[in-house]
Amino acid sequence: MRFGVLGPLAVWTSDGEPVRIPETKVRALLADLLAHRGRAVSADRLVEDLWGEDPPGSPSGTLRAKVSQLRRALGDRDLVVHQAPGYVLRDADVDADRFEELTRRARGAGDARVRADLLAEALDLWRGPAFADFADEEFARPEARRLEEARLTALEELAECRLDLGEPADVGALVAEHPLRERLRAAHIRALYRAGRQSEALASYEDIRTLLRDELGLDPGPELTALHQAILRQDPALAPRRPRSNLPAPLTELIGRDDAVRAVRRLLDGGRLVTLTGTGGVGKTRLALEAAARSAEAFPGGAWLVELAPLDGCAETLAEAVAAVLGVRDVPDPGGRPLLDRVVEALRGAPALLVLDNCEHLVEPVAELAAALLRAAPDLRILATSQEPLSVAGELRWPVPPLEPDNAARLFAARAHAAAPHAALDADAVAAICRRLDGIPLALELAATRLRVLNVRDLADRLDDRFRLLTGANRAAPPRQRTLRAMIDWSWEPLTEAERTVLRRLAVHADGCALDTAEQVCSGDGVRPDEVLDLLGRLVERSLVVPGEDGTRYRLLESVAAYGLERLAEAGETDRVRARHLARFVALAERADPLLRGGDQRAWLARLDAESADLRAALDTAVRTGDAESALRLVNALGWYWFLRGRLGEARRSFTRALETAGDAPEAVRATALAWRAAMALLILDGADPDPFEQVDAALARLEAAGDPAALAWARWFLGRGQLGFGDSERGLVLIELALADFEELGDRWGIAAALSVRAELRTYRTDLEAIERDGRRAMELFRELGDRWGELQVTFVLGERAEVAGDYAGAARLRTAGLRIAEELGLWSEMSGLLARLGRIALLTGDLDRSRDLHQRAKQIAAERSHQRGEEFAEVGLALVARRQGRLDDAERHLTAWIDWCRQWEGDGGLAFILAELGFIAELRGDAERALAFHTEGLVHAERTGDRRAYALACEGLAGAHSLAGDHERAARLLAEAHAARAAVGAPLPDAERGDVDRIARRVRAALGPDALTTAEPASTGT
Question: GO BP, one example (predicted)?
């Protein structure tokens, strides 16, 4: 776990994932412990820091609760430990400590370049003022001030190092903020003088001299005074040391590459040949020049740039180019020595750096030259840039990546400001531009210049026509860098015909592809499948194809893909290759479908996740070309995948598109798609489908007529499962029983397990605990034999519900936690939502209301993000239960009323009965007997329709509360007795954790009728 205080308080896992610390007081507690890290903070001090003059009723108990919340959020109890007289944050990895370690190392470094790099790395850790969100708190103020002073000192030291290295140091803004810091002012004055601004340097000295005299009654110190005198006599010592070099001065700031520069310089320290590779326009040259400039001091023999892009020739021609840069005269040597030998002689005697830029079109002769120079000049280092490596012994390769999104946006904004200073930059549009241009610096710079004539949103919208749009940026740039098309043309021209064929065919893939897919889609017409791998390897070497991290997938940057599609059209191959792509992905989906039910489930879910964009592209092709059979086969094979991933909206849209495709398809295929479409409508229930139940009936009728028993069994099961929780459980149970019989006849063990699992869940509405246990255990055995983790997960839902009903909360929590692990393992977000909400329910019943609220909120967010309204409703009703137990009745009512209309339309009697009961209890707690009676009376009607005795008992208990509040205690007593009898009849008495409402009502009844009132009461008749 890592902690950040150099800016707003932040916590990350060791992998860099942010950790949310809920609630302001818990965050303040963590900030307090971090401000005193390594030392115990007394409980009294923490209470005072957190609550000031308004402490809670039980300060020590409340503090312990906050500590417990903090430990849960951090996921490690050992981080926050009790140590008399209070608490301490132990072994914390804090950015402030890392900052101070780096600055200590910098001060001990003898080399100015190393010192500057360490200081820059340390200062990069700062995200804002120290303890930014607790700046006004007394407990943080001393540590924040100390860290801010350390930061200022580091900034002063970094400015001095850069000036010593002959680099610019812009500290004007800091001087304006801290005008009396003499060391900082000295750096500012030196920087101004070295930039040729002598009068401004002298004015800056006069400014601080006046300020010191007027505000502090002091004169400038001896160092500042000596600097002033040196400027007056124009002391040559003030001039920066300039290494021998022909490196061009940068015209713009290098953005987002600080880590890359450090990495390249480390490679140069350890290797003699470093090659920066990457696609055209990614910034290889700019990075190489920056790294060379920052390393130049280490090369007394000089740092020399040799630009190879204009050249076309052999090793001798390259030697001439190097000789020209080094000043070696290209004239006949009296001794007959070759030019290359004279170049070597010029490079001997002192360490030198040679930057060979743009080697890709001359890779073989450059490799030959580099090898010869390195052998003959032992102190030489070569830094090369190329779209493919030189493949010379000892070569260290460093692929230059595109810019990360934040840095890409920074670069675009900087170039946009230069091109169009008054252009408004919408953050979303900028992010879209950076994403679609793949974070390639040259493409971003070309795009930024268009803001002279377009606003940023129009620019983002026009990127589909990027090659016409991104032109004519910089007349001083080489021709290959003036347009986006020219940039890619430069990479296309050297390719063989076979390489061009594979590259343009790869462009039909929406988001890359696996090797087996590339072999099928890219082969044919002169390219054999067994040749594709070698051709892909050559394209990867040339930085035109990007390999995945695991080496199993290949993709194109978006601009290269757009270029490839144009080349595909020029070759007249578009329709043929897209048809091949469609056939490939239909076959892949149909192969994956059965493998999603068994031991290979996780691997095939991951495979289909990776192929999602191309599966959508394949459907687009089928719809556009009117290939109804391919469209329907594709969506039918993907239905189960979409369901597992909770992508119900995408599934419904896809089935609708496929069913509307003009063209012939077998009736069984079309009927299966109709059943899937009906199931998705049933699961979503958002009002877009006016009568999903009618769709269910129609789809089943079509499937029966089609005569496909396996498809019919599947549809009965899935559609029956989709009707869980609609009040009329008999409708779903009939379909499940039919499906179970079908699966048994077919010998389908997975289907049998799935049907048993759903039947067990349906039986929870009858509270048949023995039958639930029997079906659930048998289903679990079958799913485990088959290796189906999703199936195991479904059974944990059912058995967890059974454990909760029986009051076994520890058992329910174990089952649900195990299920959550499976859901996380498989990436099943809808199931994660349901399990988080159910774990929230257990936290509620065991009294941990803060944890319950957090779990329900997470569940609601996950469900909402995936348009899973049933999951969202379930989670928000849980939030209502938490709010009521915390006494926040208005919040509880708001949560419930948000869903009551939806429940009336879709959820059915079960969900409606529960919400009405909760609203009734809220009214009773407010003392509104009339409103409570109305809610509970309506709730009873819906509870009786469910056939669920527990729902009926809850309605009776609610009515008892309403009548007792109205003064009819005898009826209340009879209703409580009726509820008790209903629960006893199904062997599910009310657990202690759920007795709060009943106990409150019972106390009211006993207070009115005497202590024995409930023991003698007869069950009520609720018919009136």
Answer: regulation of DNA-templated transcription
Indicate whether 679 belongs to any domain. no
Rounded CA-CA distance 607/516 in Å is 12
Give the residue from 788, 716, 789 showing the smallest Cα distance to 759: 716
Exposure of 638 by Cβ count < 10 A (0-12 exposed, 13-18 middle, 19+ buried)? buried
Sign of CA dihedral 747, 751, 757, 760: negative
Contacts of residue 197, defined as CB under 8 A and 6 or more positions apart, other chains included, come to none
Query: Hey, which residues does 11 pair with through a beta bridge?
Result: 3
In angstroms, rounded to a whole number, what is the distance separating the alpha carbons of residues 315 and 37?
62
* pLDDT score recorded for residue 472: 59
Q: How far apart are CA 365 and CA 315, in angstroms?
A: 5
Distance CA 234, CA 691 (A): 89
Beta-carbon contacts of 642 under 8 Å, excluding residues fewer than 6 positions away, are: 648, 650, 651, 654, 680
Neighbours of 727 (CB within 10 A): 23
Tell me the per-residue pLDDT of 887-925, one tens digit each, with 9 for 90 and over. 999 999 999 999 888 888 765 678 889 999 999 999 999
Tell me what the pLDDT averaged over the chain comes to: 87
Q: What is the mean pLDDT of residues 999-1009?
A: 92
Q: Would you call the peptide bond into 220 cis, given omega within 30 degrees of 0 as the criterion?
A: no
The answer on pLDDT for 935 being more than 90 is: yes
One-letter amino acid of 654: S
Whole-number Å distance between alpha carbons of 765 and 801:
11
Contact of 670 with 627, CB cutoff 8 Å: no
What is the torsional sign of CA 459, 463, 468, 470?
positive
pLDDT tens digits along 522-569:
998 889 999 999 999 999 988 889 888 766 799 988 888 988 999 999
- What is d(CA 527, CA 819) in angstroms, rounded to the nearest whole number? 48
What residue numbers bound the domain in which 349 lies? 258-399
Domain boundary among 462, 486, 510: 486
CATH of the domain at 927: 1.25.40
Omega cis (within 30) before 85? yes
Q: Report the C-alpha gap between 495 and 503 in whole angstroms.
A: 10
3-state SS, residue 392: coil
Distances (CA, A) of 863 to 668, 679, 961: 33, 18, 34
Residues 6+ apart with CB under 8 A from 14: 1, 2
Position 479 pLDDT exceeds 90: no
Let me know whether 432 and 310 are in one domain. no
Top mean pLDDT of 168-182, 505-519, 893-907 is at 505-519
Residue 251, classed as helix, strand or coil, is: coil
Q: Residue 991 gets which letter from DSSP?
A: P
Query: Terminal CA-to-CA distance of the chain, rounded, Å?
Result: 62
Residue 386 shares a structural domain with residue 417: no
Task: Report d(CA 875, CA 18) in Å as an integer.
Answer: 24
Q: Which of 437, 463, 486 is the C-terminal boundary of a domain? A: 486
Q: Which range has the top average pLDDT, 415-424, 560-569, 982-991?
A: 560-569
956 contacts 1022 by C-beta, under 8 angstroms: yes
Q: Are strands 553-555 and 546-547 parallel, antiparallel or unpaired?
A: antiparallel
Average pLDDT over residues 781-799: 92
Same domain, 307 and 377: yes
Mean pLDDT of 338-347: 84
Question: What average pLDDT score do residues 633-642 get?
Answer: 95
Tell me which amino acid residue 745 is: E
Query: pTM of the predicted model, to two decimals?
Result: 0.66
Which tokens is 77 given? 């109890």
Whether 323 contacts 339, CB under 8 Å:
yes
DSSP states along 665-725: --HHHHHHHHHHHHHHHHHH-SSSSS-HHHHHHHHHHHHHHHT-HHHHHHHHHHHHHHTTT
Give, in order, the Cα–Cα distances in Å from 50 to each of 56, 71, 73. 10, 17, 18
| Confidence at residue 314, expressed as pLDDT on a 0 to 100 scale | 62
DSSP code for 233: T
